[in-house]
Amino acid sequence: MNSESTSERTSNLWCSDCDRKRATQLQPYILCDSCYADRYSMQLVDGKLIKFKEYLKAQLIKDGLWFKDGETRQEWHGRMEAVSRGALQRYFGREKGKVGIHKKPAGDGKGSS
Fold first, then answer.
1. Which of 25, 27, 52, 56 could form a disulfide bond with 36, CB atoms 3.0-4.6 angstroms apart?
2. For the whole prediction, is pTM greater than 0.70?
3. Could you tell me the residue ranges of all domains in the chain?
């Protein structure tokens, strides 16, 4: 592993769109990650190209996960984390604390002779 610091690996150039963040993309334009996503990140939905950020916002609103009135970003992050942990636990069908996927052996577990 290289011992370079993060600042040595990042660009010394600033985003040409917002001029607030360091550039992470140098081609085709010098852009930060946010401005690059605004310009180029697209999602194909039902045969239509939609900006990814717009699609994500629409999905979060649909699922009741968008910002609530008066909610801080920290509160929103906590709510999102709680929902995603619950969804993952349901998806994998396991209890807290277990690691990996545990399946019951097929048959009676005694093997065949």
1. 25
2. no
3. 11-40, 42-96
